[in-house]
Amino acid sequence: MRLRTDDDIYRARLVYLGPPGYTFPVQLPYAQYGLFALLVPLYMFIFAFFRGGWDPFPAWEIALAIVTTSYVFRHVDPDRPARMVIRTALTDWRRSRESAAERRDPKLVARRVMVRGGIT
Predict the structure, then answer these.
(1) Count of alpha carbons within 13 angstroms of residue 82, beta-carbon side
(2) Residue 76 and residue 10: Cα distance in Å, rounded?
(3) 116: part of which helix (H) or strand (E)?
(4) For burial by CB atoms within 10 Å, which of 49, 52, 65, 74 has the most?
(5) What are φ and ψ of residue 88, in 5° steps?
(6) How high is the pLDDT of residue 6?
(7) CA-to-CA distance for 40 and 59, rounded, in angstroms?
(8) Please, are residues 86 and 69 in contact by the beta-carbon 8 Å criterion?
(9) What is the DSSP letter of 73?
(10) For residue 38, what pLDDT is reported?
(11) Which residues, other chains included, contact 66 with Cβ-Cβ below 8 Å and sequence gap of 6+?
(12) The pairing of beta strand 15-16 with beta strand 28-29
């Protein structure tokens, strides 16, 4: 059993329940429907580009859009909206990575210093 929060902002998300009298089995915020609707054509275009043609029924594209939408909205909360999650993911993806080669940590080595002459 999940505990419901008493935070009104968290509970006041815009949810489409379906047509009157025929509610959907799942309650999703409008933003999830919108992101899904944007991702399906994007994945269709990407797959058509690599395959060289269009599919009559985009099953893989729909599946990828569902997984991507659920992954994005797993990180969404009242303090972090979906566009910030997407922007963070895109900027982290474009960030330069360190080389895969192993780097050795610098070692502190005491060196013997010879002083010629005397101190005057």
Answers:
(1) 16
(2) 11
(3) none
(4) 65
(5) -65, -40
(6) 59
(7) 10
(8) no
(9) H
(10) 95
(11) 36
(12) antiparallel
The model's pTM: 0.61
Phi, psi of 16 (to 5 degrees): -95, 120
Six-digit token pair at 32?
């999830």
H or E element in which residue 27 lies: none
pLDDT, position 67? 94
Phi, psi dihedrals of residue 77, rounded to the nearest 5°: -145, 180
- pLDDT digit string (tens) for the chain, length 120 residues: 565 655 565 555 666 666 777 777 777 778 888 999 999 999 999 999 998 888 888 899 999 999 999 999 888 887 888 889 888 888 876 666 666 566 666 666 666 766 676 665
Tokens of 50: 């690599």
Amino acid symbol at 6: D
Strand-pairing partners, residue 80, are 77
Place of tokens 């070692």: 107
